[in-house]
Fold:
Amino acid sequence: MLSNKSKFVIFIFTLIVIFSVTFLFTSYLITNSPTSSFNKKPSVKILYPEDEMSVFDLVMISGTASDVTNKLIDVEVKVNDNSWRNATGTYNWSFNWNTYELPDGYYEIQVRAGDGKSYSDVEKVELYVNNPDEILSGEHKWALFVAADNFAKDNESKLGNGGLYLAENISSYLVENCGYPTSNVIILFDDGWIRSDNGYGSPIQTLQQRPHRYRMSYGGAIKENVVAAIDYIVDESNKFDDSEVFIWVFGHGYGTESRVAGGKILERSAVFLWDDVLTDKDLGDLLSDLKSKKTSIIIDACYSGGFADKTIFNLPEISIFSSGLAKPGRVVITGESKFRLGYAITTSGPVFSQIWFYGITSGYADGFRQGILHTGRPTRLGVFKDGKVSVEEAYYYTRFMLKSQMSLKDFSQMEPEINDQYPNRGLLRSMNGLILCSN
Structure:
């Protein structure tokens, strides 16, 4: 028989077990209860677009999310009855919605945030897709600007917000002076967010949330957006015999400064997007079906000469590395050779494009010709001046300025390249310059 002492010990032990099990079970119920203060559900909010807003082309849906008890795992977005898709980011999130091929009408956008244990209540907005079905200006012109400048990692490679500002300046000029319809202009920058401290700080606002002077499309410079935008431009511009296309890409060129010629001797030129790289062959393939006979393509990046099928000093690229970009009716320009570094000013954008654009808007590039090794020279006796500045004249003006101006001596080693096949292939068949504002 058990002694009284043993019975007492067993009794106390039993009480401890019962209390522990009860405590653990109660804690589990409290912690996992949907209304528990220990595990409140996440919350999510849509900041842009607002409910009932009219949208078109590329739409960047964005907002905020929070969770007081757990770390947010993801934010998901659903359009109508389609499946849930992950947004980019959590506490500040965004989602690129491509409406190019969608019929006009109302669409329900649903958003939820998850912390691994529970989802937030679903936030909803209803948006009206109103893609332009006619070109109000009567001009069949399209423009695409792409720049990935400020990757999330803090280092010296950030290029500031200057690429965005220059893209907006060039696009405004095309709209105001060259008849480009605002609805046919697309600007893709970084991940779709503008950052404080000229790009060196944290994301503060999506590009579409900013006040805009014109109704242009904005989005992130991710590969999905670039492909969708180019596919859209090719499909739409191919409907017209007089279509005009302008494409400008700026960012980090793919290469290594410490290696001979940037490591580009037997490699393709490429430019970084936000989430991927775009090689010269990638862009050539995307534009392979483009029928426009008036196309300007400018790639302003280090080691970018391969996009123009050039190496350096206007020497041709090895045929096996042909980009496929150069075709009759196109002018392909790169801000650098395949072997040289490019330069940019963080507040105003890449140096080559700045000078090129100034040459056009000021009229100073009027009459500039090739010169020796395509270095550029002003016209003699003004014989080639006609009061209009072509894409090519602005290129030769830029080459001349880089080599001759003391104020630009820090950039004198730059070697921009050009492959001019406008209006057709061959030296004598490419004498007429491509003028953007020939309305």
